Amino acid sequence: MSARDTIFNKVRGALKPQADQAARAALVAERLTNAPKGVIPARGQLLDGERVTLFCTMAERLSASVERVANYDAVPAVAAAYLRERNLPASLRMGSDSRLAAMPWDQQRALQIRKGASDGSDEVGLSHASAAIAETGTLVMVSGTDNPTTINFLPEHHIVVVDAADIDGDLEAVLTKIRTRYGKGKMPRTLNLISGPSRSGDVEQKIILGAHGPRALHIIVVGA
Amino acid sequence: MEITSPTFKQNSGAALADAQLQKALGNVRGGFIDKRRKAIDALPEFDRLRDNARDIKNHTLDNLDLYLQAYEAKVVEAGGQVHWAETAEQARSIMLDICRAANARTVTKGKSMITEEIDLNDFLERNGIRPVETDLGEYIIQLRHEHPSHIIAPAVHLNKEQVEADFRRAHTHLPASRDLTEPESLLDEARGVMREEYFAADVGITGANFLVAETGTSIIVTNEGNGDLTQILPRVHVVLASIEKIVPTLEDAAQILRVLARSATGQDMSVYTTLSTGPRRSGDPDGPEQYHVILLDNGRSAMLGTEFQEMLRCIRCGACMNHCPVYHAVGGHAYGWVYPGPMGAVLTPSLIGVDKSGHLPNASTFCGRCESVCPMRIPLPKMMRHWREREFERGLNPATQRYGLKLWAWFARRPVLYRLATSIAMPMLGLLGRGKGRFGYLPLAGGWTKYREMPAPQGRTFMQQMRGRKAVAKGLA
Amino acid sequence: MTSVPRVGLFVTCLVDLFRPTVGFAAIKLIEDTGCSVDVPMAQTCCGQPAYNSGDRADTRAIAENTIRAFENYDYVVAPSGSCAGMLKKHYPGLFRGDPQWEARASAFSAKVHELVSFLVDVRGATNVSARLTDTVTYHDSCSGLRELGIRAQPRRLISSIEGVKFVEMQDPDVCCGFGGTFCVKYPDISNAIVERKTENIDAAGANTLLAGDLGCLMNMAGKLKRQGSKVEVRHVAELLAGMTDTPPIAGRG
């Protein structure tokens, strides 16, 4: 008998002998299908403008820096300024996200754009978030060529563009969106929920930024 | 891992005498407790979330076979491979096979208590594979050839001077003159050293905080991002998780996530909450080529359907030990195996036997603070008591204790004799202690009088006096 | 129910054997709220030592004795959070599934109250008649706090005494390290815990330490005296009943 069989036999044997196996199976199938939501905190349940403000406040509390711009056209200049202010090399790594590609990067002549996954040699990475969560100041990043996952972790600085319209109140709303986009029961390879820059408290419980992921997270919120 | 739970008393004695450790443990008392309090005060729905989290887990455990089946199917559908291991030995063997198939020389590891439970690192090293812990706390203790003393803060028992000494000893390629007095410099150094390891690794091993049946997803939470670099850079990602980590849906995971980080470190969310499903898709520019999940039983199925089933709700947040006066006094290593504190006191006997680890559920005052902070509402003292019942049935507690308590119970069941005996003993003791009101020394009470004065009884017992008063009232005296 | 509620006093073994004053203080306080108090002679112990040592059989036998002795009263009141907790929260579980005893035990447990909780929550007391000048602090015994929700009630009554200044210690709700047999089974750890407690007690700046459980009080008093502390230790009932002329627990000086 395989380990799998043994384990299943043990588990089934241990559970209360259920007279109605069909009912059990139906209950489980129902939960998997309907995916009930549970308790959603009131904190993120705000109207659009307030929700965006809450996201910015929560993200800043996590030591991310947040900047708001009116439209996508403003982003390249903001990114270039970010690099200049910190004396960083004028080079950015990004994926092939069409919203990023459509920005007027040609206006930033001195800026070198490197495309594709990060190989660890990038100081700064730029991504576009799929969504964000106001309740906790969290960015939602999805794997793929548009915004490679390595860009979320390898560069020292991570700049993330978020469309204000994509800021949801809670994680459950984001999960619904993911389900719509990928289909029921399906997921991208990696879904990263990112709340602030990398940190560790492992030495004497003192929290320090810049453990293994980016030491700085800069969020550009676009739109109202 | 050498099990020293049988010598818990000696371990505790050493821990109490260890000044470095006592200083470090001060951080547990202040830091974790206050941070958790703040986070909870900022979320009015916290207690309702705890109730829901408990209900989700109970439902899952009651239907664990069905959810495991559903989970497995989804992992395979997403292109992953599922392996089943009854025992620690089987899990190690499967892990080795996967590593060998990948020609692995180096493997990186995210922080995973289950890999401690199965002694994975030593095993891999014995088989010519180098495991590198990437979580800073785990990395530090790996350098020290120690084991974690806390389930989420592995190096909580260390001071920064000790870490500095370890780094200097291990990182000989760096200039000796460098300044490592501040924790920031220690972190920077670890970051640099680890980068190379991440890229060198052939296989990345993580645990899982949750396994989602709906989608075949594994979820890990970290603050450092080490678990992410561990899984996206190597060619192979292996998830090792015990079977009770299953939750039905993404929404169910979201509910429990809300109580996890808040209970552990007082954060609303860990910095990185990562949901991984299968290997990279065609067209993905990064991510592992292979995704394996090893599902481990190792004693969990034996807990189902018993008075210890509720322990399977544990999400390994560490809140119980953060609030435990015994853990504050002796730290995690005294418990002698992988899991310390209240959750260790309940889980360890299930996994390694109560004959080896009986001290753990006994070394508790039943103050109940652990249960009061457990996000999954696990009745920890109750289950510690059940272990004491098992020990009593098997005659495992020390003879003097058993006889002493038996004697007490014998009298307590016989009120008349109880009255008689106490009405003689207490006035005598009262007379002896009348002057000062206390005893510095009392035979048979050595454990007490070693550290405290023994208050003297007032003299005649309450019931003696009541009998006297009743007799007066009835005109009988 | 008669117009005057009949209370059966569960005096607890520690009060019976070591400090009867607490029992008499409890009687006075209960009578002051308009109840009559009786002390059934068949009581001995709540059974917690056996229970926490895993001896369920003896615990049950002791519990049956207790239930028989007390079940005909309107209320059962104990000057101890841990004994009241045992009677109220743990007795029913001992008899679950027993057709003869299950309902009987539940009915009994429903009548059980810790002393101060009884005065405030059941009898509606908002003050006591005692008069005293002192600075006091209060330790929250674990069972009373976490099983029975006792925290505000003693503070309320203490603060109602004119002349008494109440100061809160750091971590009043953290265990004192007594834990029944724990303090003699693991004396070194118990000592570490009580040392932290006495540090907090000394730092609070009170003359008198109060609590609702004699086990905790004997533990803390014993440590304070060993350390040469001048802090005096009493059961809260003694203060509330104005019975503070007896020597404090473990004596003076």
Describe the protein's architecture and organization.
The complex is a heterotrimer of chains A (224), B (477) and C (253). A 6-stranded parallel β-sheet of chain A has the order 1-12-7-4-2-3, with helices on both faces. Chain A has helices at 3-14, 21-34, 48-61, 75-85, 98-101, 149-153, 171-182; strands at residues 65-69, 91-94, 112-115, 124-128, 131-133, 138-142, 157-163, 167-168, 190-194, 199-200, 208-209, 216-222. By secondary structure, chain A is an alpha/beta fold. The longest helix of chain A is centred in the N-terminal third of the chain and has 14 residues, at 21-34. The model of chain A has no long low-confidence stretch (mean pLDDT 95). The radius of gyration of chain A is 22 Å and the shape is elongated. Among the domains of chain B are: 43-296, 3-Layer(aba) Sandwich (Rossmann fold); 415-473, no CATH class. In chain B, 52% of the residues lie in helices and 11% in strands. In chain B, the strands form 3 sheets. A 6-stranded parallel β-sheet of chain B has the order 1-10-7-4-2-3, with helices on both faces. Chain B has a 4-stranded mixed β-sheet with strand order 8-5-6-9, sandwiched between helices. The radius of gyration of chain B is 27 Å and the shape is elongated. Chain B starts with 7 loop residues before the first helix and ends with a helix. In chain C, the strands form 2 sheets. In chain C, strands 2-1-3-4 form a 4-stranded parallel β-sheet, with helices on both faces. Chain C contains 13 helices and 8 strands. Chain C has helices at residues 13-18, 20-32, 48-51, 56-70, 81-94, 102-110, 115-122, 142-148, 152-159, 182-185, 187-204, 214-226, 236-240; strands spanning 6-9, 36-38, 75-78, 112-114, 134-138, 164-166, 208-211, 232-235. Helix content of chain C is 49%, strand content 12%. Chain C has 253 residues and is an alpha/beta fold. The chains are: A alpha/beta (224), B alpha/beta (477), C alpha/beta (253). Chains in contact: A-B, B-C. Strand 9 (190-194) of chain A pairs antiparallel with strand 9 of chain B.
